[in-house]
């Protein structure tokens, strides 16, 4: 019984999502559309339609990787608000490796581009990591500010040194087809990035669950003083974790460029780094739940557009529903499972049942 | 006796089952310096918090200038002319002196005239012979000056009775004399001063009368003139120390395992907390460290275990200088174990299950892991074995350790720190908050480690525990060791004098 109740608590993001969709239905109704039809268009379009599903998976790649770039440091007690900047740096470094290096066999150059992108994002994570560990500067502020630097740096490069001649808009030359990521669904945009994301999630789960490194990192997150006491080098680990998180964020940008856009565009990420924060909370920091959360969030974004076209809803209504989901999930985290309370509650019920079965009220040894 | 001044009658205060104060009487005539002496837990701070309106007494009366008063809040205390200066200064370091003084000053309108306040403050400071620049930022001032700012703060609020809680603990030795001189000036100006301390020489130097508290009761109320410090020391430690020396079967070996020389360290506030400490511990010896809390004991433990960077001095283990080793190396290669004072904050990760807390120290080693992989099953087995042998009462080793009682948590920490077969075991306040049974278990474990030949440093403020368990006792005061004695020689006078900071040769 306790286990079942605990299970209900574990699923609280699911209940929160359902409630938010219910509230969203109210909004849709106010906008003068049948909510059933609207949601059918949304979910049918995002998950059940071949091309819709492909779009969802294409969007899921950066959102999932950004989510992982938030989850990993958060489990170590660090807030990475800089996934957006890390995405941009990853995109910048990987497109430089693709366009500026001499042409090589794709077998060599694709891994080189991916490594470059990871390195770019990693450096963007290393800076706040170092400042946090050795200078005591709040990582939240630094990661937020570094976002702007990265975004504007990419705008400068895409509109300046690397801009394609005669382009109407700041973007680079196209990356040659040999360096593109393979597609996982024929004739669609769904590329390999999402698969890499899922694999990395499993790896992260494994590391946290089964390795000494993960145990040490978890300890830093739960009690950094005890971690120091046990001989863990907290500062070094903080720097390393921020580098790895940045590198994963960098991969999000890398795959966006190599898998989808095939050029370095300015403003190529519409805030995927911040969607990553939503994914982290939806998944309750579980790397295994992150793909589910990212899949759902991507579907909501893709399906929202489809719903807008199909039933003529204002895009603001769609955005409001996405906002509702976030608010409801955040609020649901306030409900914590209190084993003791529930145990006492169940115990009282059991006593009551026993009393009823015995035909007497529980008057001996009864506890209030 | 004049009615002018402060009078406490039969003040009592109980926390749960614990009688913190039990019928305390005290009279402090106006214009005198009154010292309150006592060990940890004697009730000094509780008494002062009652005077300052932070606690309400369960019984008794407070009379100020002959009139009974109820001090319901610090604000009320200030209205009655009572000002308190806490042990750790409560100043905003980035603000200037005058800004700190004006901060929170009642009766200010919408307009703030800092220049006016600064002028008044300067005049006030001059009248007491304090030389201070009201526009200086506080962080630029030395500790002694900052303390003066605190005193000026209460004087500026027209305090007539000033309470100082361990005022010299934050001062450098060179600043103490100036501080005592300041107290004399305040007394000359007719202010009444209550000053809490455990340092006998300061009490002797400046106080008119002294009330000695012991376990919530007044054990003596003396005029300072004519009372030798050794007498005060005896009254402070007081009880006939019954030496229930625990049975120790094997004698201490002659091999010096740990050699500490001139160890120095700063505390988190940057004060010199450890001012050159030297001692040896032999294999199979328990060296106790006694003293009032906050005299450098925590810094000593942390400097030994590597958690705090030492500023100078050496730590040698079996002849090897290990001063440069980090925490990991000290714990694993050198075999230093540590039972920290703060179980919840340092010794455990409360949200983790019991078996994972068992592996905190050695999770990178067999049997808890092999290579990079954790071995949860064998860790559980080890934890279950320890739970049985150390009598840790719990439901399951998968339970979060948060839900265990303090005694059971401490037993697990001891199992973890001892089962790894350390060479040096540092223990800090191991019996804090434990019941009698758990205390006994802790001491059994410590003695068993001694039999094994471990060098043990046992830091505690509980004199009885130290005297009954340890082979030798070092007493710390103000960051130094004031003496090392055998428990049999520990008369109340001697221990009290050492705790009070009188070096051995000064004891009568």
Automatic annotation (TrEMBL), chain A:
This is Simple sugar transport system permease protein. Signal peptide: none annotated. It holds the Pfam family BPD_transp_2. CDD domains: TM_PBP1_transp_TpRbsC_like (cd06580). Keywords: Cell membrane, Membrane, Sugar transport, Transmembrane, Transmembrane helix, Transport. It comes from Aminobacter ciceronei. PANTHER family: ABC TRANSPORTER, PERMEASE PROTEIN (PTHR47089), GUANOSINE ABC TRANSPORTER PERMEASE PROTEIN NUPP (PTHR47089:SF1). It is a multi-pass membrane protein. It is found in: Cell membrane. InterPro entries: ABC_transp_permease.
TrEMBL record, chain B:
The keyword Translocase does not apply. Signal peptide: none annotated. Keywords: ATP-binding, Nucleotide-binding, Repeat, Sugar transport, Transport. Residues 6-240, 258-503 form the ABC transporter domain. The keyword Transferase does not apply. One of its GO terms (molecular function) is ATP binding. Pfam families: ABC_tran. It comes from the Bacteria. PANTHER family: CARBOHYDRATE TRANSPORT ATP-BINDING PROTEIN MG119-RELATED (PTHR43790), GALACTOFURANOSE TRANSPORTER ATP-BINDING PROTEIN YTFR (PTHR43790:SF9). Belongs to the ABC transporter superfamily. This is Simple sugar transport system ATP-binding protein. The lineage of its organism: Bacteria, Pseudomonadati, Pseudomonadota, Alphaproteobacteria, Hyphomicrobiales.
